[in-house]
Amino acid sequence: MSLKPEAILRLGVAGVGRAFSLMLPTLTGDPRLRIVAGADPRPEARARFAMDFSARAFETVEAMCEEPEIDVIYIASPHQFHRPHVEIAARAGKHVLVEKPMALALDDCEAMIAAVERAGVTMVVGHSHGFDAPIARTRALVESGAFGQLRMINAMQFTDFLYRPRRPEELDTASGGGVIFNQAPHQVDNVRVIAGGLTRSVRAGAGAWDPARRTQGAYSAFLNFENGAFASLTYSGYAHFDSDELCEWIAESGLPKDPTRYGGARAALQGLSEIEELNLKSSSNYGGAQYRPPHGDDDAARRWHQHFGLLIASCDGADIRPRPDGLMIYANNEKRFEPLPRPRVHRAEVIDELHGAIEHGRAPLHDGRWAMATMEVCYAILESSRTGREIMLSRQCAGATP
Ligand SMILES: NC(=O)c1ccc[n+]([C@@H]2O[C@H](COP(=O)([O-])OP(=O)(O)OC[C@H]3O[C@@H](n4cnc5c(N)ncnc54)[C@H](O)[C@@H]3O)[C@@H](O)[C@H]2O)c1
C-alpha cells in the first residue's frame, strides 16, 4: 500500500538573516516545505536569496504577501517586526511561523493572536528548544506517571551569548536585547513543556555586569507551578564556563563542539568599535561578503538533537536528564540510558507542528497562547529582578496535548 504523499507548504521568508540561515537545513531538508519567496531590505541578502533558491526576493513583507503562491510566511525579522509582520501575513490569509521571542510586550502578543484568529490562519511560534525531541520525550515520561509526580526542575546554561557580534539594539533591553528576551524564551519553554505549562509565579535576579554591553547577560529565576512543582533556571552569557562541557561536548545546535576553542567569541570582539562590530555582523550575515553557511554538507550524519544546556527533571521515583542523544534516567534501583535516534531532519519537530496544524487540523503546542505565556514568564523575570518582588502570572495555559 502506498502512502499518500504529504502536501507541500510553499514558504515565503520575512527576513533572511541569521535565524533564517540557522533554519536552512530544515527549510531545504524537510520534504513538506518549499521555499518560494523571501523579503529583506538588504539588497545583498535579496540577491543571494534569489540566486540560491531561484525564488522571488521582495524588498518588503507587504509586497511578498501579495503573492498568491505562498501558503506560509516564516517571520525571521528582528523582534520589533514580529507583530506587524504577523498582522500583514494574517491579513493576506497566510499561515505564520514566527521566531522567538514572540514579541516585546503582552499587548503585542495579544494583537498577534487576535490577528490570526480573525483571519482563521495557523500561527506556530518557533523554533525554540521546547520542540527538541529529548525535551518532548522527558515530558512524555513525566506525564506517563511511571516515576510518580514531577517535583522539581533544574536548568542551567552557560554560553558566550553576550560576546557574539551584535546590532546596537541587540544590546539594549528596551529594544529587546539581552539574554532575557533572547535566551530565556528557550529555557522557559523547556521547563513549561515538562511541567505542564501553568506557571504560577516568578522570582528572579538578573545582571547587566559589563559596562561595554549594557544589557542583561545573566539571570537566575525561580518558578512555581500550579501543580506544586517548582523550577530553578540559570543562564549566563558572559563566556567563561561553557555548560556544553556537561552536555557531552555537543553544542546547542546538536553538532560536536571542539572544547579546545576556549574564549573565541570574546577574543574576536576585542578592540572593535560599535561600527566595526556592526560591519562584522553584517558582512558575515546571509548575503554578506564573509557569509559562511552555519551548517556544513556532512552535518546531518554528525548531528544529534539540539539542546539548551543541562536540565534535570526530578520526580518522586527518578531524576531524568535529557541529553542530545537520549535520556539518562536515574531511578530508585537502577541508572539507565534510553537512546533516541538521530534527528531525521534538523528541527523537523517545528514542521511537524506547523504542517500538522495546517494540513491535519492538529492543535500545535507552540501556538500564540502558549508562546504568550512563555513571554509572560520572561517579562516577569525582568520585572522581578527590577522590583525584588515575586510576580504572580495571569496568562498561563497548559497548551495542546502533543
Ligand atoms: N530560534 C533560533 O534559534 C533563533 C536564532 C537566531 C535568531 N532568532 C530570532 O530571529 C529573529 C531575527 O534575528 P537574527 O539573529 O536572524 O537577526 P539578523 O539581523 O541576523 O536578521 C534579521 C534579518 O531581517 C531583515 N530585516 C530587517 N528589517 C526587516 C523588515 N522590515 N522586513 C523584512 N526583513 C527585515 C534584516 O535585514 C536581516 O536580514 C529574532 O527575533 C531572533 O530572536 C532565533
Itemize the secondary structure elements and their pairings.
Blueprint: E1 9-14, H1 18-29, E2 33-39, H2 43-53, E3 56-58, H3 61-65, E4 72-75, H4 82-91, E5 95-98, H5 106-119, E6 123-125, H6 133-144, E7 150-158, H7 179-182, H8 184-195, E8 199-207, E9 218-225, E10 230-236, H9 264-269, H10 274-284, H11 299-302, E11 310-315, E12 318-323, E13 326-331, E14 335-339, H12 348-360, H13 368-387, E15 391-392
Parallel strand pairs: 1-2, 1-4, 2-3, 4-5, 5-6, 7-10
Antiparallel strand pairs: 7-11, 8-9, 8-15, 9-10, 11-12, 12-13, 13-14
Helix pairs in contact: 4-5, 5-13, 6-8, 8-13
Bound molecules: nicotinamide-adenine-dinucleotide.
Nicotinamide-adenine-dinucleotide binds at residues 14-19, 22, 39-42, 45, 61, 76-79, 81, 99-101, 127, 167, 182, 285.
Structure description:
The chain has 402 residues and is an alpha/beta fold. The protein is 33% helix and 21% strand. It has 13 helices and 15 strands. The longest helix has 20 residues, at 368-387. The radius of gyration is 20 Å and the shape is globular. The mean pLDDT is 95. It binds nicotinamide-adenine-dinucleotide.
